[in-house]
Amino acid sequence: MTLETVNATDLPLPRVRTGKVRDVYAVGDDRILLVATDRVSAFDVVMREAVPAKGAVLTQLTAWWLRHLEDAIPHHMISADAGEIARMVPALAGKVRLLAGRAMLCRRTAPYPVECVIRGYITGSAWKEYSRAGTLAGEPLPKGLRESDRLEPAIFSPATKAESGHDENISVERLRSIVGMQTAALLEGLTRTVYERGRALAAERGIIVADTKLEFGRTPDGQTLLIDEVLTPDSSRFWPADSYAPGRSQPSFDKQPLRDYLERERAAGRWNGETPPPTLPADVVTATSARYLDAYRRITGVPLNIPEPTT
Length: 311
Known about the structure:
Elements: E1 15-18, E2 22-27, E3 31-36, E4 41-42, E5 45-46, H1 54-69, E6 77-79, H2 82-88, H3 96-99, E7 103-107, E8 110-111, E9 114-121, H4 124-133, E10 135-136, E11 139-140, E12 150-156, E13 159-160, E14 168-169, H5 172-179, H6 181-203, E15 207-218, E16 224-227, E17 236-240, H7 256-267, H8 282-300
Antiparallel strand pairs: 1-2, 2-3, 3-7, 4-5, 6-7, 8-15, 9-12, 9-13, 9-15, 10-11, 13-14, 15-16, 15-17
Helix pairs in contact: 1-8, 5-6, 7-8
């Protein structure tokens, strides 16, 4: 089916929160509905223009990974099929086409107040800190690393959750002080399992998962579940393996066309890096959408195809 491009939602359910990309609704006391819109942000600024198919890629790629991981990692997903969701939540019966591809009904949890980041290669904020101080979250790393070098073993690098601005890298010791030693060990173990399995599967498809950010939540009965998005272009760095070369930054399957355009606008003095953002040209929006769709196809092996929903 042809997907609607959605910048915002207004569903007949109690709204829990509105994030940069997702609108979250309560479904009773024990379930939530995650709706990934086509909003896109860069440099912590949400653009006015939506990116077609982006929300469906994030939702359906997460669902694909959860199905491939569920023998080892318990997760919160109940369904990512809009028709099935509408049958379980009758209030959504008239919203099926809007939700198609982008909605996920989930068990409700109390999220842990940290991001579980794991880095298999040194890049991004980790490279910036290392190149300045030789450390990550204040902890020393081996000398002589180059940008994009592989880290073996991968480094578990938790971060605080920021409501606005950038998350802050923290040490494992700080994580222990926040969630306790036993929970910190559990979160690190689960994170490593997701990353190693995801990295191995992606490698078979010619993709390097340089790093990824995961979230976990706790159910009322004390079970820890993998929640939110999993191994998507928004939560991970995907690099093409055939062009990987350490010593420089790598091309990635994400919103790089958008970032490149905004960098040019900032360099030319036409944007100060704050809200409001500049208007995005149609070709930048199209190129960004194509990057997301390409990531989905490469990882799953098939193009994104959302069937006509049935209720």
